């Protein structure tokens, strides 16, 4: 494993939290993600199902977790199914988890090979007075998914085989649990942030007119890999000049030019947890007065936004407040005019020309993490705060993004050590 041992306590605690949310006569099944194909016999690097990882810490394909808290035989109340390993597999693919290692990782005492699943699952479903079965689905309001996951195939199989059991959605419960991070999870997220910071500091020394965006991408990756990260938390956005106004720019294939701005939305993953950082810097190491003016406007909005966060805040109400603060900054920058404001179409306010995305999202095992955006914020939630101003007519886009934990008293900024002031950035780029 590239990352330090997380310790089974986190996963034992997570399962305990889940079991508190469901009746005793329930069964829960969570499947691993598939190894996704590309072409011929190629595959995409494996990424574990976040819910399965949250409940077990197992980072391996063909894994299934079954929880049956009311099952008469204690042995089968928590069962982990893992892919059988043997000499042949060890020769070609390297070591897979042994049963002992799986027990040590998860804190689950009953570990059996996945090939035994149908028989043992049949016993759990039919011999234990099961009333409802919680099955897992990938639910995210922004996702459009056409491929069928292992969980989806399992749901079809299960409902055909056991048609008269009652079925229920696990997702809303998992979303609630996962949106509030425990101490250990916050440590892992801080580690992802610290690795991201190292990458950013390296890039501050590297960037100069003439470098290519993908060379900057390579600098980040170098730092991330050597720190035990498996790489980028999401497709990095390394956008110079006019590209900084393209919100999801990921081509990263242009030359950075003297006088241009450079928007860097790049974060590392660590132990499946993610950081999501954006900084905007001048290619030549000195902000022009216009760049500085826009940059400081975004920074003021970000700081005010962070100061507004805390327990009880509702995201959409907060976002509307941030939009008002942004509107005032856009007037000061003379990008929108007070008299035009009175005539604006309320369904398409003028500020949206320059600030057209959300102020943030939850962050965790997924970058746009699960959790109900309408619910009020609670201590332990992690939110990004990422206002931006994008002036297409000037080829100037600025976004600043930090990752902030909601605490009892307000917030704690996981990125408080990452340079953000104009003077700090200029100094680091010029020494
Ligand atoms: N990097 C993706 C985002 O900021 O939401
Ligand atoms: Mn980002
Ligand atoms: Mn973000």
Short overview:
This protein is an alpha+beta fold. It has helices at 8-20, 50-56, 87-93, 99-106, 117-126, 150-161, 171-179, 183-206, 213-226, 289-308, 315-332, 338-343, 422-429, and strands at 26-31, 64-67, 78-82, 110-113, 132-135, 166-169, 231-232, 237-240, 261-265, 268-270, 273-274, 278-282, 382-385, 388-391, 396-399, 402-406, 411-413.
Describe the overall structure.
Helix 1 packs across helix 2, helix 8 crosses helix 9 (213-226) and helix 10 (289-308) packs antiparallel against helix 11 (315-332). The protein has helices spanning 8-20, 50-56, 87-93, 99-106, 117-126, 150-161, 171-179, 183-206, 213-226, 289-308, 315-332, 338-343, 422-429; strands spanning 26-31, 64-67, 78-82, 110-113, 132-135, 166-169, 231-232, 237-240, 261-265, 268-270, 273-274, 278-282, 382-385, 388-391, 396-399, 402-406, 411-413. It has a six-stranded mixed sheet, sandwiched between helices. Strands 7-10-11 form a three-stranded antiparallel sheet. Strands 8-9-12 form a three-stranded antiparallel sheet. The radius of gyration is 24 Å and the shape is globular. 39% of the residues are buried. The protein is α+β, with helices and mostly antiparallel strands. It folds into two domains: 8-179, 3-Layer(aba) Sandwich (Creatine Amidinohydrolase, Chain A, domain 1), CATH 3.40.350.10; 183-429, Creatinase/methionine aminopeptidase superfamily (Creatine Amidinohydrolase), CATH 3.90.230. The model has no long low-confidence stretch (mean pLDDT 96). The protein binds glycine and manganese (II) ion (2 copies). The site of one manganese (II) ion has 5 residues, from loops.
